[in-house]
Amino acid sequence: MALAGALSAGREWWLISNWTELKAYIRADLASMGVRAGLKTWFLDPVARLIILMRCNEYLLNTGKPRLLRLPVLFWFRRLSVRLGFSLGPNIFGPGVAIVHHGLLVIDPTTRIGRNCRIHMGAHIGGAAQFCEPGEEHKFSPRIGDNVYIGPGAKIYGPVRIGDNCTIGANAVVTRSFPEAGLTLAGVPAKIIAQGGTGERVLKGASIS
Length: 209
Prior knowledge:
single chain; alpha/beta; UDP N-Acetylglucosamine Acyltransferase, domain 1; 5 helices; 14 strands; globular
């Protein structure tokens, strides 16, 4: 099943469920960011460090590890999130996410975004948060496909669906669905201004089967 179809059905099949997947996700994320794994990246790149902590927290949560084991990672992740200006929950992104800069970034925790998302500072993606029944989040929150570029200051609100290989321009405000693949969206409210996909705007650290 294509990712866009899985998302629209509320299926969240990309959750990290074992150690091998954790390592694969981190490799894909760093590749999409264009950085190399290693101590230099860990100490000098706080955004890369945050993403690694995010994936570790997801792994510990999804695999039901003891709370005492998860709490130090969660504390470190949240402390660094506040310092960088990020508000992120677990299991939002598929593999290959690239957060380009630190700065204000707010994403509703019930949002689901596919592989190889490249997202810039100032983006705000809002949805249902805790105001819906468990299992009903896909009816109220954004669902975004693979290889999507989200420009600086873009806003995406409500139960919208964005197709694969789309570009959302800087400061665009998306309040309705654009499920077709390969669209470029811009404006307030957002509308289609071009077709043709994200091209070189997205580094695809996670291969698409």
